[in-house]
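Recall the central idea of this unit: under ordinary conditions, the amino acid sequence of a chain determines the structure it adopts. In this exercise we apply that idea directly, starting from the sequence alone.
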Amino acid sequence: MANNKVLLVDDEEQILLSFQRRLKKQFNLDIATSGKQGLEKLDSEGPYAVVVSDYRMPEMDGVHFLKTVKQNHPDVVRIMLTGFADIHTATKAVNQGQVFRFLTKPCPPRDMAEALEQSIRYHNFIISEREVIDLKRWRKSLEQMVAALARLVESRDAYTAGHQQRVALLSVAIGRAMGLEEQTIDTVRLAATIHDIGKVYVPLEFLTKPGSLSPLELDVIHTHPQVGYEILKPIEFESPISRIVLEHHERLDGSGYPQGLIGSEILVESKIITVADVVEAMCSHRPYRPSRGVNKALGEIEQKKGVCYDPEIVDICLELFRKNNFNFQI
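Accordingly, the structure predicted from this sequence is:
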């Protein structure tokens, strides 16, 4: 929301009241009759978009005041107002207070209004730019965290190294072919990149066991979607990453785990990753079996289309491999 709050600081109260009376319809104006009072208002009643300060005031002059404002409230746009305009004053105001505008007394309300409008636009532009930069930094940090989590999983198990990245690659290709929005595709990519994060709590000997797993061992491995959900739930993702991770082993007919969801209860992003996960897993070598190859993997999802796997997603996946020559090269 745009901020149009302005603080006028001058030891001549009549001047402040005059500006307040004439400009109150255009701006949200507060007044202070000293630098000290101005600083108190900034701390207790802010944030302000603009501060206008007289130069000559007792105890604390305008340069000192605006310099302090710059230190304590750097986002506030600063304007100097004085009847003693000279090069020395202007230089001090610019260098120490980094003022945006320099106005001389007597200042007509029209000139003051113009200066405030420009200053408010500048303030809101700076705030908007910072928000964009902060969002980009947050996204970069999020990406780095996701990559670190992915490496953590795959560093434990050489057989599945790169599995999550390859699942993400296929999932994104499916999402694009479905015509999903870029934000949704990015959600799919992030979730796929860490969909097996819950395996960090699965004993490594279960993951790398060359023979068949016992029912107990299978039960432990089947906990990894729930564990992944619990790991990711506290993280403030913009999209339902933790839920997608929780659902990536669900099946349309309710035969999946951990919740036994059916049909529309499963997110489309989860359905995409489910198909990509099955295909990539069957194409890759595992401790307990060699790669089954692309044809068998595609045959698996084709056979169970509409039963376990979403028909549209399966058809798109088949087309990607059979017509578009998709491969898992990262």
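The CA atoms of residues 167 and 280 lie 6 Å apart.
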